[in-house]
# Entry
Amino acid sequence: MAINKDGNGYTFGFAIVLVVVVGAALALISMGLKPMQEKNAIIKKKIDILSALLSSEEMNSINRKNAESEFDKYVNLDDAVVLDINGDVKEGVSAFDVDIKKEYKDKNLKETDKNFPLFIAEKDGKKSYIIPIVGKGLWGPIWGNICLDEDMRTIKGASFGHQGETPGLGAEIIQPFFINRWIGEEVANEEGDFQKFEIVKDGSGAMPSKVDGITGGTITSKGVEEMVNRCVQVYTNYFKKL
# Structure
């Protein structure tokens, strides 16, 4: 029987077949690229962690080709731990596998069920403690890592990231001038009790536990304040128990 190529049936049938074929091809491509995407995500996560530990000059020499070997040079994942919201160690959970961004966005996940990974690094014979953090800025998620000195109190490094903050305003949280304002601040007092931070815009950032915010980026700055305070307190509870 001859096929009527001018009929609606042929047109719809051809469109359906085309959609199925293209959909199948895209699915196959996606499956083929998934291992590469997962690999890239691992590398990016390791670079983010290192960015709180190493200086900007040291980070300039790190790229996707050498990131994993550089990471292994400083961080032993066997030493990493995962804490619960009370600062107690959770058994059977891999710190590197914890996705704090995903957990933060999950409104159905109770705070008591969230995981708080802690990475322990060694550089120049000294230990450092790297705390991943996540929060919300003006337009979307913000995140970062806080690196504490071996006294488990003093901030020696930090890095921040964002998804869509305003260029020249909130997006400036990633710049060295803002990150440097955190260096030397203490997350706990001598007794190990958490010290809450305050982002200020009155020039009083030189005072203990106060950090100058971004001019014109008040909401993003306050988002960083909330993020650091909420996340870091869990870890000070853990350090106090050691």
Remarks:
- The chain has two domains: 7-74, 76-241.
